[in-house]
Every structure is written in structure tokens, then in C-alpha cells.
Design goal:
The chain is α+β, with helices and mostly antiparallel strands. It has 15 helices and 20 strands.
């Protein structure tokens, strides 16, 4: 009898230990909800947040930004300018990829060359003339000319360093990525739920949690409900209308995150009507920016005068504000069309409800000046592909910048070399603007750069290929179970590896 009791008690202890351990492990996995499904987990392929917001935890870059926006070593142990066009990187020793391979210079050179072949990433590496290995652990990058933003561009998640052997062997990095980052993907599924576990051999130290799960929940209200019920731990892009709901919940915290983002209205200048810069100005004059800021963002932000957020180096905020002027806008449209109505314009937006609401206000604004339009809500993957091909008339988007330097914005959105998949979806081309952008990026004197960027922004305002709408403040909803939430103020990157989940009583 005693033996039976002993066996039962031993079994109870084992089962109790098993369930306690299992619960503890599961309880220390951080669940994050985002609004759009990543097109791929290959960071070199798509320069868009749903992908990069996930892959930044799988991969590392040669350099990263500190909170002051200064590039500092990451996978590089250090870097030295041998001349204004030559940068020597020393690669860290004993950094492991998720597959057990050790990072070497071949991986770095392979990754940079691969980036230069991909439309999504090559725009940030256009300055590179040559890449060579000088010693076993050193890589020399030679530029065509001095480039002030080059190091900052290397900090973007899109500049991820990959394992050459893994890719050359034919593995599908888009579905099964292998990096050096704090987390490794264990389940991609159909992309609606990406499961990652902590990488114990991470060169910066094992994460303080056991893993991450990214859930794709497209509806804002559904994301909020998932946070309230404890289905997820963190949600981004909380609608201002929902701020009070999060603030009043005793189990949640609301963070207001200053961003480097701008809500933008992109006009395809190749389309009839929109190819006329006077019509584009009329559209700008018609947009009720203050109404959008008040109705949709509840004044959590400010009216945008430039496509460049004021938190970015080079942003010029003394541009003349094109105040809403329906009378002038109507007169321009009447003069330019000789009272013949323009064909209805297609306003494209993703499923994001905030952007749909912006589209509805813009549609009403355009109607007031005699321009009809139709709103088309397009699935994210299709949206990226078709807008890169120029299928849209107008598109609504948010430009999220991962560095604190203006060059990435103006080169990607406005340079003629970036037309299409590389980012210039207004299809705007202007040699004067191209020359100014090239001059500014090759100038190392910060005062001169600011002067050139002022000219660039003045020219953009005159031409209106893109209309800035709002600089917004992001709301982040976080369960009080989450400790050590961190993000980099200069790059807006999140550091989930420092977070942990605890029981709150």
C-alpha cells in the first residue's frame, strides 16, 4: 500500500513539474499583434513594415543606431574610414547563425551583393562601387563618392546579413529565414501567425523570454479586443479613438510613441489629370488636413507640411502651408479642364481602417472641387505589386523611416532611379530634383546638406507628386504583464529580447 502511495505521489510530482514547466515556458512567450501580413520573411525583397517589423528580430545588420541616431557597430566589431570613400569593417568573431554556421566575411559580402540585386534593397546601396575582403575578418567597402547617409542606411532592417551557405544550398529564406538575431522562426504557416523561439547562442546574450508569436489581426477593433482578453500582449497603431479604452483598463498600459512617420497621399503623375501639376496643386488645396487630424486622429499629431517628419534630420518645417482653399482649387480645376470633368480617379488603400477613413474624407474633398473618385481597398500583397506597376491613380500610405536621416525618404520616394518597386510610386521624374538629391547625399557638411534638403522640399511642394497629410503619434497598447518594453528612439526599432512576461496579481 505504501509503495502504491509513493508511486502515486511521485507521479503527481512529475506531472505537476511538467505542467508547471510547460505553463511557465508558454507564459514567457510574448505575443504581438500587427495589422498586415508580411509578404515574405526575406528582408532584402520587400521594403515594407509588415515584413521588416518581424525580420528585425531574426537578423542583424553590420551597424545599428544608438538612441542619438549615431551609427555604432553591431555585427561589425568596428569600422574605420580610410578615406571619404573607403570604409573598413572588422567583423565580430564567433557570431552564430541559427543553423550553427559562424559568421564570416563571405556572408557579409554575399549579403551586400545580394541586396544590390534586389529592387527592395538596392536603393540604399547605390553608393557602393566595390566590396572586397582584405583579411579573414575585414571587409572594405569602396563608394563612388562620399555619402553622408551611407552608414545610416546600413542600419536599416532591410540591410540584414544572411548566411551564404544556407541560401546557396537552395533553402527558401522567404519562408524559413536563418539569421544571427535573437529569435529563430519555427513556424510560418500561412503567414497569419509567425512563431519564433529564443536563440540561446545569440551573440548579445540569450533573450529574457522564451520566444515571440506575431499574430496578424487586420481589424483595429479586433486587435484591441485581443489585447483586452489577454490573447495578445502588445498591439501597435492603437486608434486615437481607442486610447481611453486602453488607459482605463487596469490590466493595460498605453504608450504614446513619437514617430518618424508621415501619412501620405501619393499621386501617380503618369495618369491623365494627375500629370498636370496645377491639378495636383488643386487637389492639395482641397484636402481637409485639419479635419482628418481631428476626426481620425483626435488631434494626436500635427498637420504635415512636408513629406519629411520633423523628427528626421533635414526636415524643413518652414514651408508655406497650403491652407485649404476650395475656391482657388475649383478655379484651377475649371481652368485646366475647360469645365470638362476629369475621369473618376481610383484611390487605393490597404485594409487598414484608419487609411480607409482617410480615403473617405479625401473622396468627399475631391468631390467638392468637381473631381469624382472611387475608393478601392486592396489586399496588402496585391497593393505592393500593383502600385509598383503604376496601376493606381492615388494611393494612401504611411512612410515609416527606420533611420533619422532624410536621404532614405527623398531618394526612395522622389528620385527617378527609384521609380516603381524601389519606392517611387508617384512615378515622378525631375532632373533638377535628382541632381539636388545626389548633391545632398554626397555632401558631408551638415549645414550644406540642410540647405540642399530645404530646396528639395520646396520643389516637392511646388510639384505635389506626394501630398503630406499628418504627422501622427503612435499609440501602443501593452499588457501590464510585460516588463522592459524598449524601443530605439532614433530608429523606432523594438528590442523584444529584453522583455519578459510576469504574473500580475
Amino acid at each position: 500500500m505504501k509503495n502504491t502511495i509513493y508511486k502515486f505521489f511521485t507521479l503527481f510530482l512529475i506531472l505537476n513539474l511538467f505542467f508547471t514547466t510547460s505553463f511557465s515556458k508558454e507564459n514567457n512567450i510574448i505575443i504581438v499583434a500587427q495589422g498586415s501580413k508580411p509578404k515574405s520573411l526575406d528582408p532584402h525583397t520587400f521594403n515594407e513594415f509588415p515584413t521588416l517589423g518581424i525580420t528585425e528580430h531574426i537578423f542583424n545588420t553590420l551597424v545599428t543606431l544608438n538612441d542619438q541616431g549615431i551609427p555604432v557597430p553591431e555585427l561589425a566589431k568596428d569600422f574605420t574610414y580610410l578615406s571619404p570613400t573607403e570604409i573598413l569593417f572588422t567583423i565580430r568573431d564567433n557570431v552564430k547563425f541559427h543553423n550553427g554556421e559562424i559568421l564570416n566575411t563571405d556572408d557579409v559580402i554575399f549579403s551586400l551583393e545580394r541586396m544590390m540585386e534586389k529592387p527592395g534593397s538596392r536603393v540604399i546601396l547605390k553608393d557602393i562601387k566595390n566590396i572586397t575582403k582584405t583579411k579573414d575578418n575585414k571587409v572594405l567597402i569602396t563608394l563612388y563618392e562620399p555619402s553622408a547617409p551611407f552608414l545610416a542606411n546600413l542600419t536599416l532592417p532591410i540591410a540584414a546579413i544572411m548566411n551564404k551557405k544556407y541560401i546557396v544550398e537552395g533553402n527558401n529564406v522567404a519562408l524559413n529565414p536563418v539569421g544571427t538575431g535573437p529569435y529563430m522562426v519555427t513556424n510560418w504557416g500561412d503567414g497569419d501567425k509567425i512563431v519564433m523561439k529564443s536563440f540561446n547562442d545569440y551573440f548579445k546574450g540569450k533573450p529574457k523570454n522564451d520566444g515571440l508569436i506575431f499574430k496578424i489581426i487586420t481589424e483595429n477593433t479586433s486587435r484591441l479586443a485581443a489585447l483586452e482578453t489577454g490573447e495578445v500582449d502588445i498591439i501597435y497603431a492603437v486608434s486615437p479613438i481607442d486610447f481611453q479604452i486602453v488607459e482605463k483598463d487596469p490590466n493595460l498600459n498605453l504608450l504614446h510613441k513619437t514617430t518618424t512617420t508621415t501619412e501620405l497621399m501619393v499621386l501617380n503623375v503618369k495618369k491623365p489629370g494627375l500629370d498636370n501639376k496645377n491639378i495636383r496643386k488643386a487637389i492639395h488645396l482641397a484636402i481637409d488636413k485639419s479635419g482628418i487630424l481631428e476626426a481620425i486622429f483626435l488631434n494626436k499629431g500635427s498637420i504635415a507640411t512636408s513629406p519629411i517628419n520633423p523628427n528626421i534630420f533635414g526636415s524643413y518645417q518652414n514651408l508655406p502651408l497650403l491652407n485649404r482653399n476650395l475656391k482657388e482649387a475649383k478655379e484651377i480645376v475649371a481652368n485646366e479642364t475647360k469645365n470638362k470633368k476629369l475621369a473618376p480617379l481610383k484611390i487605393w488603400t490597404s485594409e487598414n481602417i484608419i487609411r480607409v477613413q482617410i480615403a473617405q474624407i479625401i473622396q468627399a474633398n475631391l468631390k467638392e472641387i468637381g473631381i469624382e473618385s472611387n475608393i478601392e481597398i486592396v489586399e496588402w500583397g496585391t497593393f505592393l505589386k500593383k502600385t509598383s506597376e503604376g496601376a493606381h491613380d492615388i494611393l494612401l500610405t504611411t512612410w515609416i523611416l527606420g533611420v533619422s536621416d532624410i536621404d532614405t525618404v527623398v531618394t526612395t520616394l522622389f528620385h527617378s532611379n527609384s521609380i516603381g518597386a524601389e519606392g517611387n510610386r508617384s512615378f515622378y521624374s525631375n532632373k533638377k530634383l535628382d541632381d539636388l538629391i545626389d548633391l545632398a547625399r554626397s555632401t558631408t557638411d551638415s549645414k550644406k546638406r540642410k540647405f540642399y534638403y530645404q530646396e528639395i522640399q520646396e520643389l516637392i511642394l511646388e510639384e505635389n507628386p506626394i501630398i503630406p497629410i499628418v504627422y501622427k503619434i503612435d499609440g501602443i497598447g501593452i499588457s501590464k504583464k510585460i516588463q522592459n518594453f524598449e524601443y530605439n528612439k532614433a530608429s523606432m526599432r523594438n528590442y523584444y529580447e529584453n522583455m519578459k512576461k510576469v504574473d500580475v496579481k
